[in-house]
Specification:
By secondary structure, the chain is an all-alpha fold. 68% of the residues lie in helices and 0% in strands. The chain has helices at residues 2-14, 21-32, 37-54, 73-98, 114-132, 138-161, 168-190, 197-210, 221-224, 230-245.
Amino acid sequence: MEEADDCRRAAVEAVADVEPPRLHDLVETILEDASMVPGVLTIESAGVATRETTAGIETRSDSEDGVRTDSSTEGVLTHAAGVQLIYEGLRLTRTLAHEEPWHDDGEPHDDGNGDLEILAADILVARGFYLLARTDAAGKAVRTVQAFGRDQTERDDLIRADGPGGDPADLDANLERDVLELAVLTGAAAADETPSPRLLSTADDLADDFAPSFPPVEKCRGAFARLPSERSLEDHTTDRATSATDP
């Protein structure tokens, strides 16, 4: 998908100054191997949120074709990269928490990347926050990280208790659910809009399908096809407008 390639490039550019080279290479490899579902959903949500407010309504703008230009493509890609970076950092943190990268004697496993991976996870999250810092989605980004910390703590408690009380996999899946909601909010914010309940429910549906991990984005075409279409939005908006004026 073109959106996935564009988002990946934006994410890689956002970490281009990471040093030393070995750490930079690790961060870049993480992004090259990443499913870009959160980033693509951010981009798609920006378009859907705009259509939701313009469908069936004649609008004026400074552009020749009358299309709204509230946000540039570059701005949407930057915000999509921010969502993707936060997810990749938290996902890597979750992996490190579940698969201790050190031996009992404190020495790293054979690849010796344990310490670098921790640094990479911190850098990914921090750089993602930087890209979203001045957006309306910044608060949701903070809450996503806070919820992740609580869920992983509760997960550890469940495992240590070794008894009934919940499924650790459900707690893991909350990360993907929260990140998809963050993607929708970020995409809508990039278009200077508020996401509709319909669009937010689509993020929930995607989480039900994929959490606690995302497949390659190319395998998600059918899932993205469920996003509200321009035609369905026109029908929906027209119906609401008609009912509002009925006696």
